[in-house]
Amino acid sequence: MSCTELAGPGPGSGKELLRANGRSAHQLRSMQCERGPLQRADGSARWCQGGSVVLAAVHGPRGTASRKEDPERAVVEIVFRPRSGLAGPAERLAEATVRRTVEGVLIAALHPRTAVTVVLQVLSEDGGLLACALCAASAALVDAAVPLARTFVAATLAKTSEGVLLVDPDAAEEEAADAVATLAFAARGEAPGDVAPTLADGVLACRSAGPLSDGDFLAAVDLGRAAARCVAVFARASLEKSLSALV
Amino acid sequence: MSLAPQQALASPVENTVVGPGDSVLVLPEAGQVRVGAGLHADGGHLRTTRPGILRRTKAGKLWVQGRQIRYIPAAGDAVVGTVVERHSDAYNVDLGGPFAAVLPALAFEGATRRNRPNLTPGDLVYARVTAASRDADPEITCTDASGKGAGFGPLQEGLVLTCSSALVRQLLASPPPPVVAALGAALAFELAVGQNGRVWVGNADSSTVVLVANALANSERLSPGQAHLMVKKLLASVQA
């Protein structure tokens, strides 16, 4: 699917079901990425996906306590802080997901005995929080210039009780949905001079909750890949804009 | 296709923005590609590991010009370090990288066992990185290759400014950048630029040192005209 198809027919055209805010079923919310908002972190980014906003800070590669260090590669540590209250099991699950995703793209062998720490702070929540946090982490890692083999992007999908798959649900849609899935895909420019990044085969991370039949799950992966492609194009455009001063 | 050994291959995306993992060159079976910072060979492609602008040096080496705050030591860099520990025959010096560097106590010009500099934790040194492998702590020295001082050594008094690799590259450019030229025309001070993102300003009274440090910190994203204007305003505000 191309980006224009995914952007939807537009409100009022009557072509597909309209969601509460006028979006079509496969339409993403507006995204914003601010790179380098924090002065003291080695890399930082603020990612807004509709009403969900996550601030990510990266510190590293830096030395760490000897009991945590690995003599052959850099260790990845994630701290996920909710908007209010203390971090609990849900945050620990999010940390584990983000950690494995980052480990899938970081070239850890270049910095043995060090740690790369990513701190994710939720600033506001409106559905699709894990995908927003993953995109923020990716943008912050790129800003920190830690060695990466690929970047990654994420998208959220929800399956309503009528069996319709919605892309990028907000909080109300997530609450009402039967199943919600967050998918992350690795991306990089495959050939020299590629304008848009290409998503790698396979899924980098997948976290789903709720019943999804095999067919539904595979449809969700396809739809998630198309949505993630749009997110990757946006992330790339944002990177080019932030680096345009250096050119 | 065979190439003369001196002819380095050019990339189709030179002087454009590249992201991490992007392919910049399809590696041929024969030929020479000179590779610098931020690039590695992956499969049949030369790929980036960090974002930036792909540049080619005059010698034909491809590298990624980016903006980084954390310093990763590389042999040959001139750095400004802070002594953190003192041992019997070496000092541990913080360079702002993942690990502290080792500075042998005799690695100064004219140092012997009886006559050597007496550095305490907190002192600053301007040194040269001699060894930086990923598995060991980096090593630095305050002499050049022949054993002479060459400007390296302890730095007395002054202020250390932390900055990004992009600003350091601007400050080390020749001819000097407009902000340094404008400051040098009006004030007398000494500057030591460390490739680890630390810039020492000293050998002047405190108001001059603070003014120079502020001007340098502000100058990263300014055009030459803006830099001149900023320096002029700072000088006017001090003299007022």
Automatic annotation (TrEMBL), chain A:
Q: Which GO terms describe its cellular component?
A: cytoplasmic exosome (RNase complex); nuclear exosome (RNase complex); nucleolus
Major subcellular location class = nucleus
| InterPro entries associated with the record | ExoRNase_PH_dom1, ExoRNase_PH_dom2_sf, PNPase/RNase_PH_dom_sf, Ribosomal_Su5_D2-typ_SF, RNase_PH
Where it sits in the cell: the answer is: Nucleus
Question: Please, which domain of life does this record's source organism belong to?
Answer: Eukaryota
What molecular function terms (GO) are annotated for this protein?
A: RNA binding
A Pfam cross-reference name:
RNase_PH
GO biological process assignments: nuclear mRNA surveillance; poly(A)-dependent snoRNA 3'-end processing; rRNA catabolic process; rRNA processing; U4 snRNA 3'-end processing
Annotated Exoribonuclease phosphorolytic domain residues: 27-147
Supply the alphabetized keyword list.
Exosome, Nucleus, rRNA processing
Query: Coiled coil where?
Result: none
Q: Which PANTHER family match?
A: EXOSOME COMPLEX COMPONENT, EXOSOME COMPLEX COMPONENT RRP46
Recorded family membership: Belongs to the RNase PH family.
Q: What is this protein called?
A: Exoribonuclease phosphorolytic domain-containing protein
TrEMBL record, chain B:
GO CC, sorted alphabetically, is: cytoplasmic exosome (RNase complex); nuclear exosome (RNase complex); nucleolus
Where's the K Homology domain? 158-204
| One example of a Gene Ontology biological process annotation | TRAMP-dependent tRNA surveillance pathway
As one GO molecular function, the record gives: RNA binding
Keyword annotations: Exosome, RNA-binding, rRNA processing
The UniProt entry lists the main location of this chain as: nucleus
Q: Where is the signal peptide?
A: none
The organism's place on the tree of life at top rank: Eukaryota
The record, for Pfam families, names: KH_6, RRP40_S1
Q: Cellular location of this protein?
A: Nucleus, Nucleolus
Under the heading SUPFAM superfamilies, the entry gives:
Eukaryotic type KH-domain (KH-domain type I), Nucleic acid-binding proteins, Ribosomal L27 protein-like
What the record says about family reads:
Belongs to the RRP40 family.
Q: What is the protein's name according to its record?
A: Ribosomal RNA-processing protein 40
